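Recap quiz, item 2
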Amino acid sequence: MKILRSVKGMHDIVDEEIAKWHYVETAYRQHVERYGYREIRTPVLEPIELFVRGIGEATDIVEKEMYTFMDKGDDHLALRPEGTASAIRSYVQHAIGAKEAQTKWYYIAPMFRRERPAKGRYRQFHQAGAELIGVSEPSADAEIIDMAVRYLSDLGLKGIGVQINTLGGSESRARFREALVEFLLNRETDLCGDCRRRLHVNPLRILDCKVPGCIEISRTAPSGLSLLSQEDREHFDAVRRLLDRWGTPYELAPSMVRGLDYYTRTIFEVQVESDALGTKSAILGGGRYDNLVAELGGKPTPTIGYAFGIERLLLVLGETARPKSPVLVFVAGVGEEGGVRAFDVARNLRGFGIRTEVAYTEGSLRSQLKKADRFGATFVVIAGAEEASRGSVTLRDMSTGEQVEVEMDVLASRIGASR
Ligand code: HAM
């Protein structure tokens, strides 16, 4: 019979990989919870309109990459391609703004984009992100950038490059768009086919085109920084002053734009130089998106956030992501009574939070030790009838082969001390 395989660009995560996932996910939760972020979980399916309105109709994500379908009740749905629009939909739907002045949410969740699969680019991938809703101050921008960078550097990630830019508020953005279109109209025939179309629907995206001719044109395009309003400039300067004060590394990237339309003011990306991903590529992206709450039907509310791809992070972390494997105890029961007692011992150890395996089938001590070795056990506890009469067991250290008799009362603490 034909063996069924997972969908192209969508992968199982098994064996040693899953330990690495737990490692980065646990570190992420602990890190952002220290800054006051709480987890939010939203559905994988959303009305398609959420992303059309939220991310923007003329973005690659909405135009080409979303998985959409009509369900049996004729509702037009989409698998979420990112987490921000869903978080804000939830914020507006539950009128969170009426209950609290500021909201800090984080998520770790699968996302779906029908891109061409490549190393570090999948059709189902996972993002960990954070959204800070209700704070307009530049300190929020600086703190969230610093929070993201500290997480990555605490994991031991090397070669981190942080790029920041500002798109300005609505007014500055409109001025920039106008100047850009004027500049590009004179060079329209030299643009690639996609960009000729973008020029009329989403000209800022042209600055992000990877076609060599378009890169060349973008190089001399007007800079948004020179067209900023006084307020936008002051905001950006304040963000940079804080980052400088904390020694958070960053570079100014005046031509950086982002692939989603909702951004205003500060935007940022983290790139990592790594052979694992081929070229320099972005593992994290984010920015301010002060108009999205209102666009989704809420009161105007300032917002900023970011997300990174877990697969990409693990690729660039490589062996650095190897978590310390926890102690594993194998309990071997000798004889009929020992076999039963082995389960008592295992239940006792698990109660102390120690990972414990037991042999379900009876066998000689020799065969059980072999089994323990295959499991990769750190210790074997031998529950024999003789020690039972003294309320003790034998503890064998699998790395040295050394054996000692230990009283049951102190067994867990003795094993725990070796962790
Ligand atoms: P984004 O830049 O589209 O931003 O995605 C963020 C990260 O998700 C990327 O830097 C990358 O690591 C990962 N990623 C994106 N597409 C793929 C893919 N096909 N395969 C593997 N990884 C991928 C956002 O999604 C925004 N929602 C970020 C944000 C949050 N802005 C404000 N708040």
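The pocket of histidyl-adenosine monophosphate is lined by residues 82-84, 113, 115, 120-122, 125, 127, 129, 131, 259-260, 282-287, 289, 305-309, 311-312 (CB under 6 Å).
The chain has a mean pLDDT of 93.
End of item.
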